[in-house]
User: Fold this.
Amino acid sequence: MRPRGYLLFGCALSLFGCVSGPPGADTEEQSSGDEQTGLSILAAVEADIKTDIAYVQYRIDRVACAEGEAFEAVSRDIRADLLPAGLPAGIPGFDNAPLDSLSKHQFADHFEVLPACYDVAAIPLKADASASADCGAAHAKDAEVKDGNTTEIFLLSQCKGPEVGALDAVAAFNQPPQLVDLTFSPSKFIAAGTKATVCARASDPDGDKVEFEWNQVGSSTTTAPIVSSEASPDAATASCIGISPPEAGNYQFEVRIFDLLRDEKNNLVRYERWLADNGSPNASNDSLRFAVYAGTSGEQPQPQPEPERQGAEKP
Assistant:
């Protein structure tokens, strides 16, 4: 049977084989049949790339050289360490055949004398003898060893490249909302048991939607007033509440305005919440404290100092 060469490309390997004699033998000597019989196997991985490979395990299985041939089954595993030199390193037979002359590939090698035909695999392994996660196994089928010749097989283990993508970072600037005005109807001075309607209007420099939050922050009496939501003139930019103090007193309140954006589920959420959830906690609001004074029937409530205006405070 005539010696065979190999050229195989696949998703995990490529393979090249040839028949050769000892180094320095010319063509006539090689064709004379005087060469040593044997199988020379190389497996290469990129030399300058760091992988998890500690060594290469060669697996050699005896196969039939011809259909129906009877043979004694042989299966062997051989460990080979990686060699420091990088192929092709200017070596004739490897330079541009198939490795580019300017490339540099780390490799392992195994040589042994044996007869007949074999399947060969080169399996990169980690130090704990588990399969490499970086590089795949390379295979050659039906490698024939001709009597008196050395059959050289070149296996190329395909490795994974580093994961790479792109990052496109857009930075936008958000301005906090602003309180425009606060109004009282009929007045912030009312009799106990009656109601004052307080309305706040706000705007946002960026055109964002806004949300109002009303809270009682202090009182001259322990009894809380009755506070209820009221219809506002413009729900998008205004909000109103009704305050009904049950007894005479000085009642302190705060209105706080937040700007809103949409989250990944298309829900309106406060900028403050979105920023905190994304690792950049910052305040984005405006606020104002104010008082409603309730007196007994026929008694005029005494005015108090003007409330303090607050803005862009953390909640």
Q: What stands out?
A: The two ends are 87 Å apart (CA to CA). The chain is about 5% helix and 45% strand.
